[in-house]
Amino acid sequence: MREYEVISGYRRDDRLRASFNELAGETFGLDFEDWYQNGYWGEDYNPHSIVIDGEVAANVSVNRTDFIRRGERIRLIQLGTVMTRKKYRNQGLSSRIMEMVLRDCGQADGIYLFANDSVLDFYPRFGFCRAEEYQYKRELTAGKEGTMMPVPMRDKKDWDKVERAVRCSACNSALNLDGNSGLIMFYLTKFMRENVYYDESLNVYAVAEKKGEELLLNQVFSQERADIVKVAEAFGKEFKRVRLGFTPLDPDGFEACRLWQEDTTLFVKGKVFDNMEADRLMIPLLAYA
User: How many DSSP H helices and E strands does the chain contain?
Assistant: First the structure.
């Protein structure tokens, strides 16, 4: 093994950030550069990388995702962007970074990550256990014309307006992301620019995907607690049911089903997750890193 150094907190280093983006593109098809240039990559997302000859050879990113869980604030860390450059694979680099990261995460109440099917045997070596999540759905019966209007997400001015709504939103979920609006803006300025809506009468922003007669309501942002059913019905009578990308504060009228996602398994570490399955919670879809 050639000499290497472990470097973190380098998002302002143009050379290392470019190398990180190159590796993320090769591994996941992701590019974080516009997220950084637009000012949404903040201190909550922190790559920890093994660097060899000035090149990011392997990485594990630490993402602070604190939540309000049924009124209680919990400090969580999500690990993500776990990747190794092809020429350095099978040399134990990911294990070395993981050991270091877990030592640095000792102050968190819990740690979690989402793994693909090719590495399901890797994370239990570090004390992680598989966890079950529950997703909520219900039928819609209002039959009203839609009042939700698409929100333009063309440029920084549009994005900042929505980001303020995200930061100032009331708690609308039983497991509600506390802070880290930059993570949500990663989605809203990239893959989900066409999925942001606003209802003036409800004074609610909603992030939603339309799939035939089913509405996937990823998240709701409002100054006061929103009525989730009314928000879903505001999308119009063509939708017969809604599926939530978060756990509702009031589950009455919703059906809770085990969440299954292709090539994605949730692993958790820490006593804070002991009651997660019993509480029938899910990590909000817009909190994935």
Answer: 6, 17
